[in-house]
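User: Hi! I'm working on a homework problem where we have to compare a predicted structure to a textbook description. Could you give me the structure for the chain below?
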Amino acid sequence: MRNHFFLLLVCAWMSPVILSAQRCQPPLLSLRPADTLYKARLWTAAGAGTGAYTLAMAGLYNSWYAEYPQSDFHFFDDGREWMQMDKMGHWLMSYQESRWIAGGARWTGINRRAAAWTGFAGGQLIQTSFEIFDGYSAQWGFSWGDVAFNLLGSGMFLGQELGWGEQRIVMKMSAWPVRYNDTQIDPYQPAGNQQWTTLERRADELYGTGPLNLFLKNYNTLVVWASVNPRSFSRQPSGWWPRWLNVAVGMGADNLFAGQGYEWRAVKDCEGADCVTYRIDPVQYPRTRQFFLSLDLDLSRIRTRSRFLNTLLSAANIIKIPAPALELNSQGRFRVYPIYF
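Assistant: Happy to help. Predicted structure tokens:
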């Protein structure tokens, strides 16, 4: 309270000078959003955003794309690969990137509508940059399918901001490590080759290791959720349903060890009968699409007295909270989970 009183005194003292401002602006680096356009914050956010984008793109290129063969810019249709889990990832990340960038824009005092469009543009800039990198990579290519899901994610954020003034449906993710069968897999061809592998080794080579790859790259562990807030659709804001409790529907996949089918080569670009090729049994390891129904928490609707904690909860609202869940998969199997991560 004393801080607020001091702020009022400062505002009163400065009011003859700042004739155009209806309210005193908060300190430059305060987490409190500005009430009106705060040019110092706008330039700070623009500079920080530009620097972060440049460093991120340079780091991504040097740590990932530079290690793979380059080619002339080309297109690639990957719509049938990975049971569309990569597309779900594009939907998720473009939505969340737009949400985060719009939050930063609101911090500078930009009005909600302009901030929503800023978030949309920022999400598309990031995701389109990835696609351009893919377009010059010999092993991938610029994918119009990825672009469509990028637009879907950012558009989903923008539409809710412009239509409802809030995010009633939030895209989220969850992941948990998979324990793979350690059975030795011998090459399918060439005959007599002893260069065996395992599913765990294949998954590590394909998706990488570590927490970041677990969430963003491993399609056998990733589940992408649409977390819906029923209370926000109610005509009675004071209804019995808690304002922070959501219902989430999710999609995941299992036994994805190749973009399509059940076989892969030890060296991706290898051609000919001498290439070491592995094949797994589709009956034992069927490629499976999974659908989930669960409860979730909308962390952005949990308000505390700490502005820092509120900001942290809102930023972390990309993670689906562990909860009981139901699963129905494409093999016709139904499962109940006391807790699903």
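For your comparison, note the following. The longest helix spans residues 39-63. Strands lie at 169-174, 223-228, 245-254, 263-265, 277-279, 288-297, 323-329, 334-340. Good luck with the assignment!
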